[in-house]
Amino acid sequence: MPLGASRVxxxxxxxxxxxxxxxxxxxxxxxxxxxxxxxxxLWEYESYKNFCxxxxxxxxxxxxxxxxxxxxxxxxxxxxxxxxxxFSSPGGNDxxxxxxxxxxxxxxxAIIDKIQAHNPNITIIIEQLAPGKSSFMTDEYTLLFxxxxxxxxxxxxxxxxxTSMVIAADMATGFTDDLLADDIHYNKAGAEFIAARYYNxxxxxxx
Length: 207
What we know:
Blueprint: E1 2-4, H1 6-9, H2 19-28, E2 39-40, E3 56-59, H3 65-79, E4 84-87, H4 92-96, H5 101-118, E5 123-128, H6 139-159, E6 166-170, H7 188-206
Parallel strand pairs: 1-3, 1-4, 4-5, 5-6
Antiparallel strand pairs: 2-3
């Protein structure tokens, strides 16, 4: 289940989601997988190797961790079986909207709690989010994103149980301005960068 906001949903022609690039990577790897979610794209993607893009997800542009927290139970109940969640840019929109840091962390932890309650054996890959464009990243944003990177690693460690792994995926290191379509969203190269980071985390799990 790809979970998050606009970086998950994408808007082809303006900015890209990593999902299409990751889907192609997984097809190339000959893995048996199924993207799930209650949301589907309204636009078409090109087929690849005679496969049609699996466009189900839980990405909603502009949504905050608080909004995701309020809806995650219903989404999980509707979808049913979920083995892996790809938790994208947690708290990103909250931070951009000036939300309280402790509240952001509280909502991220609550989302993970609800996912693990749905399936105690689930694996969650949670992003240490990629920054926005350098001209957009004020000192305040830069500090907050750095704090989030540290906290996400801590959350992954604390929330991992004997049956449910929570794995931090570093999307920030090596991420540069030329991977962005605008101040915060991925272009094609950016989407491929993020997809590759996810793929590297998924391969040992899927094998």
